[in-house]
Amino acid sequence: xxxxxxxxxxxxxxxxxxxxxxxxxxxxxxxxxxxxxxxxxxxxxxxxxxxxxxxxxxxxxxxxxxxxxxxxxxxxxxxxxxxxxxxxxxxxxxxxxxxxxxxxxxxxxxxxxxxxxxxxxxxxxxxxxxxxxxxxxxxxxxxxxxxxxxxxxxxxxxxxxxxxxxxxxxxxxxxxxxxxxxxxxxxxxxxxxxxxxxxxxxxxxxxxxxxxxxxxxxxxxxx
Length: 223
Prior knowledge:
By secondary structure, this protein is mostly helical. It contains 10 helices and no strands. α2 (43-53) packs across α4, α4 packs antiparallel against α8 (156-162) and α5 runs antiparallel to α6. The longest helix has 35 residues, at 3-37. The termini are far apart.
């Protein structure tokens, strides 16, 4: 495996998992806000589904996506099987419950008195959401860290819907599996180190942002 191929695999891993994590944040965060403020019949059931989804086996997600996008499936005409797009969709489904569930948990950690005070001061619904997001920012970053960590290290779903096609859908996790099956343990070990380094770099960046917020909270400017 040459350097160019390794760089392509690494970039695709980052692009697929990064896209899935960001999409899950764009959908999961508004969903968590909705579930936090709204009461409706069946809410507990929906929240139970979200919590169950946080531990959803990736191979189950891969099977579900494959059934939908297979040639004979309901969306088979889109011809997305064995494409990076199908991999993003599978990882998005894996990451979404994590973002929604952990964000909602972070919202519940916010002191209700803060929102009550804001409401008493005449805050609009949009302003209440802004206060909630500001007070739970560290929890939201924890959610995106968990979601990215889950999808960047995932292999079952992307292998089922991506097919591990060389130069097209092969990512670090599937490449490690491929090299191990071929007995190329040295190459597999190097790819594993790259995967760990990539995961660490992204999580270090997100953790740095999270800790800056924590430091500002511990050391307010008025001190």
